[in-house]
Amino acid sequence: MKKxxxxxxxxxxxxxxxxxxxxAGMLEKEGFEVKIFDTLSALENxxxxxxxxxxxxxxxxxxxxxxxxVAAAEAVGKxxxxxxxCHGGMCDAFRExxxxxxxxxxxxxSHPGGDxxxxxxxxxxxxxCITEGLNDFEVASEQYYVHVxxxxxxLATTRYPVVNYYHAAxxxxxxxxxxxxxxxxxRVFYSSLGHHNDVFDEPTACEMMRRGLLWAAExxxxxxxxxxxxxxxxxxxxxx
Length: 240
What we know:
Layout: E1 3-10, H1 16-29, E2 33-37, H2 46-50, E3 54-60, H3 66-79, E4 82-86, H4 87-91, H5 98-104, E5 106-110, E6 117-123, E7 137-141, E8 145-148, E9 153-160, E10 173-183, E11 186-191, H6 203-225
Parallel strand pairs: 1-2, 1-3, 3-4, 4-11
Antiparallel strand pairs: 5-8, 6-7, 6-9, 9-10, 10-11
């Protein structure tokens, strides 16, 4: 049976407990054994962490210790543990930690207009199974403006500006909403949707998130079946 951990906490405004419970339900329907934690100290149990198929952070802002971040980064990079999350729960977690941002592939910087902004999510056509058959859809939520890694494979975007602000002086620009990336042997998926739990009542938003969770978890199977070397991507050079 595949195993997943969901770790929720941080700013309560993002409804981390409710979002974590929704993701747990998704995964349990797919046959996962899911454990839910409300403390980052769970990451310090490296032996169990490294054996997971999937790690789902639902933790906005807050502080992570260097030991905890390294444990997560090595579980994903060395042992193929999948990493998947949404909104501020993954890409506005631990703002001071650049290694976390490097691993996740992006960082929130603004949401012009705040909550309740109506905007379109544009599915980007490509080879990804995550977006196969999905169509553009609209949401009313926070429209996340994110700084992103150019190595990401972008699956969906949204066009700015919808709300007037200083960024509008740059003209129209498409900013990623969802992406995948690799971190060593691990797979990483992110969706900027999810300001509140009910955003995933939108069927396409929910389906894209479900597929992203499963896609990320699949990396562990490939790691095991191919007998990959955990040390392949490690380096003794200074990284940060």
